[in-house]
Amino acid sequence: MESFHMESSLGEPHATAAAALGIGAMLFIGFVMLVSLAITIIIYWKIFSKAGWSGAMGLLMLVPLVNIVMLFVLAFATWPIQRELEALKRGQRAGP
Question: What is the pTM of this model?
Answer without folding.
Answer: 0.68
